[in-house]
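Comment thread on ticket #2218

A.B. wrote:
> Attaching the input chain for the structure job we discussed in standup.
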Amino acid sequence: MPPEFYQALFNLGFENVYAVADQNQQIVPGQNSTRQEIQNGLGIAPNDVIELQDNYRNSYPIARLAREFYTGDPASPPPALPNRPSAIRPILHIYEQSDFQNLIERILKNADMAPEKLIGLIAPDNKTRERYFEALMKTKATVKFDNGPPAVQTYSSGSSPAIHFNEGGIMVINAQSCKGLEFDTVFLADINQHFCNTQNQDKTKRLFYVMVARAKEGVITLKEAGKHCPVDAILPQDNEILERQ
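C.D. wrote:
> Ran it. Output below, let me know if you need it in another format.
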């Protein structure tokens, strides 16, 4: 929320306000408060601020990748890397347009292998979101599943569909809508469509920090082959952190 919101709460006499914030998830500066602005607006003494250091969501490989996008704001130190080892390493998969249909089938098969788990497919924009959603819906009518066709849902800003986050399946959403959500596995669709200002990369880094941190078990990053990819500038080059395929 903007700083004026917390100042209004203080002026109205609210005495018990509990705010939990990760400043590195402030995707658009100016629209949301910094931790210091929340502290000042609510009149919270420094000794009453509790720094949460433990990461209870991500596996170690996912948290390690997310840390690559940490912007280094001293007001919000990154959570400690969790002691939850995993053999599932984050992947950067570069696909040809001719292989797009196979990619869609693989995502559907991934959902079929664990029907109780939720996959988040996070798109850079509405056009990409609709492309993946329509392809998933069309293809699931023709693929043979062991556990039945998975539920495929979508959501965009301003819409109000009945979304079920407590069920398995595939959720297709825009990057700007993913903050605060949680998925077992995350696919980052067509990252080459993301903008990255070479003079100020922090905004894009924060967005990738948020998207990666949505995942509990696995992250698969998708990039179209032969396309200019501005975010290559912020991707880790260490294959141990982000495995190229």
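A.B. wrote:
> Thanks. Noting for the ticket: The helical segments are 3-11, 35-41, 60-67, 100-113, 126-139, 202-212.
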